[in-house]
Design a protein that fits this description.
By secondary structure, this protein is an all-beta fold. The protein has no helices and 7 strands. It has a 4-stranded mixed sheet with strand order 5-1-2-6, with no helix packed on it. Strands 4-3-7 form a 3-stranded antiparallel sheet, with no helix packed on it. A hairpin with a 6-residue loop joins strand 3 and strand 4.
Length: 74
């Protein structure tokens, strides 16, 4: 499980978000308004702290929906 802090543009606060993997892009539901938000690319201004590995999600953490974008050519 991975977590980071997300800067919320709606409330100008931060929320803890969690995911099973570190996503390139993700969506989440704002806890106060219930609005669904898409983050189609990794924006360092929205997640200024690095993702950190944790054993369990923190209480109140918002689980994000990872999005698969792009391909990896090897």
């Amino acid at each position: 499980m991975w977590e980071t802090e997300l800067v919320c543009t709606a409330c100008s606060g931060t929320h803890t978000v969690s995911a099973a993997i570190i996503p390139r892009a993700f969506s989440y539901t704002r806890p106060r308004s219930g609005e669904h938000v898409e983050l189609p690319f990794r924006d360092p201004s929205r997640t200024p702290e690095p993702w950190r590995e944790v054993n369990n999600a923190s209480p109140g953490a918002i689980e994000v929906d990872p999005q698969a974008h792009g391909t990896l050519d090897i």
